[in-house]
Design brief:
By secondary structure, the chain is mainly α. Helices cover 59% and strands 1% of the residues. It has helices at 28-48, 62-79, 88-108, 113-133, 137-164, 168-173, 201-209, 211-218, 223-239, 243-261, 268-286, 291-298, 306-322, 346-354, 356-375, 381-400, 409-420, 434-439, and strands at 53-55, 58-60.
Length: 476
């Protein structure tokens, strides 16, 4: 039997049923959060699909297509003021992208315009994607949850590749894309080195290592989740069997331990940085061949490669001094016979290819970013934890870039990660769009000798009323 609200109703109207719950519509914040989650998921899928295809002379990958489609929306958000106040980090990063494109133009001219476009889109749009999409601690946690989930998806494929040397992800993607090359690398510790969605195992390991400290701090109050996601990041990083990613886990673990020990110590990160510089200086003075030689020889899984790394660094530094402004076109670098195949130092590799200014602009952008993150005032404990995880991951990254060369998806992910940390020192209130600021009502000044304004009389409602959900209902 149905309950009728009232029998005294206008003829022809339907009875109103009592007891049926009203449909709860999502709020604007919930819809925004859902859109961002799906954008993070779509981008992570595009980033982790290995392979490429050609349109004319341009070599495209799924993540490049995603960023190309995002160019205009991102620039529109920048024009609307979504970035808030611009910082010195933004200025140095834009300068880095500009010199990158300029050096490419000097080397190749407009005959290879697609190279300029691709480099600019990967670097600038990657950074802007992080800046625009991550506006607070909640957005950051959501991005990292998508990232950690992607590592969980890749973990079984990494395990299979370690045991059988069969890259199933590359095989599946190779059915509709031109697959990346598979390196014929010798096993280590009786296991094959997993590269899964990347062009080299070291790239896969470095990518996965970004989640370790973040998992520790994001889930600090949830011990089971903390251990699970740290284990996921740690296992996938180990699956690469590469020295640099494993060193990343070691550095992050040491910084986490330091944070726990010195939790009540002011300027603890500056003290740690000063201690690191002092230790490096002592090693430079007391070791026979300097600190770099000592670290390379003692922090690699295969010590036999250490001598070649040192010789490579010395050779590249000579070339950088010889061509400091725009570097040397990659195709014209004549490498010695003992060269191992890559310049395992991102800073030197960038300097020799695009010039010293390119390296300095990016280095200063990252260092200033770290300083601003350390100096930001954050009241909420959970947001402060997120800040610490980001800080540790970036600090370890600065050191690791002196031991590896990065390109492709890992390079883009690092640009996004740097942009995603700007919310720490650019408050969300400062990111209000230009249009919203322009439409804010400006209170009219009230003179002391004037009477207070008469309160507005309520007007009868006509038609439907827009409410807090942006649809229909009470606006209260």
């Amino acid at each position: 039997m149905e309950d009728i609200a009232s029998n005294n109703r206008p003829s022809g109207s339907r009875p109103r049923r009592i007891g049926r719950p009203a449909k709860i519509l999502p709020t604007d914040a919930e819809r925004r959060e859902r859109r961002r989650r799906w954008l993070f998921i779509l981008f992570m899928i595009a980033l982790l699909v290995p392979g490429s295809f050609f349109i004319g002379p341009a070599r495209l990958t799924p993540y490049r297509v995603f960023l190309l489609l995002a160019v205009l929306p991102l620039l529109w958000q920048v024009a609307r003021g979504a970035l808030g106040r611009l910082t010195a980090v933004d200025a140095f990063f834009v300068s880095y992208v500009f010199w990158l494109a300029l050096a490419t133009f000097v080397h190749e001219g407009m005959a290879r315009y697609e190279s300029i476009v691709v480099l600019t889109v990967e670097s600038l749009c990657g950074y802007l994607f992080g800046r625009v999409m991550v506006r607070n601690a909640s957005d950051y946690r959501q991005m990292m949850q998508v990232f950690l989930t992607s590592l969980l998806v890749l973990a079984p494929f990494a395990l299979i590749e370690m045991a059988t040397d069969q890259n199933l992800v590359a095989r599946i993607a190779g059915t509709f894309l031109e697959p990346f090359g598979q390196g014929d690398l010798a096993p280590r510790m009786g296991l094959h080195r997993a590269q899964v969605s990347f062009e080299h195992p070291i790239l896969f390991g470095l990518f996965c290592s970004l989640g370790f400290a973040n998992a520790f701090y994001i889930y600090r109050l949830h011990r089971r989740k903390q251990l699970f996601w740290m284990g996921t990041s740690g296992f996938t990083t180990f699956a690469s069997l590469s020295s640099a990613p494993l060193l990343a886990l070691l550095l992050q673990s040491m910084m986490i331990l330091w944070d726990r020990i010195a939790r009540n110590l002011k300027a603890k990160w500056l003290i740690l940085a000063g201690t690191g510089v002092a230790v490096f200086g002592v090693l430079e003075l007391i070791t026979p061949n300097g600190a770099v030689d000592f670290l390379v020889n003692n922090l690699t899984l295969v010590p036999e490669t250490a001598e070649f790394r040192i010789l490579t660094f010395e050779y590249v530094i000579e070339k950088v001094i010889e061509y400091p402004v725009f570097g040397i076109p990659p195709d014209t670098v004549v490498l010695p016979w003992w060269h191992t195949g890559s310049i395992d130092n991102y800073w030197l590799s960038t300097a020799i290819t695009y010039g010293v200014p390119t390296t300095l602009f990016l280095f200063f952008a990252i260092v200033i970013h770290l300083v601003k993150v350390m100096g930001a005032e954050i009241a909420e404990d959970e947001a402060s934890d997120v800040r610490t995880g980001h800080l540790i991951a970036v600090a370890a990254l600065v050191f690791l870039l002196a031991t590896v060369h990065i390109w492709g998806p890992v390079s883009v992910m690092i640009m996004i990660y740097l942009g995603a940390g700007a919310w720490i020192y650019v408050p969300e209130a400062a990111r209000t769009s230009v249009r919203m600021r322009a439409n804010r009502p400006v209170p009219s000044p009230v003179r002391p000798d004037s009477a207070p304004p008469e309160p507005a009389r309520p007007q009868p409602a006509t038609g439907r009323v827009r409410g807090s959900t942006g649809r229909y209902g009470s606006g209260a």
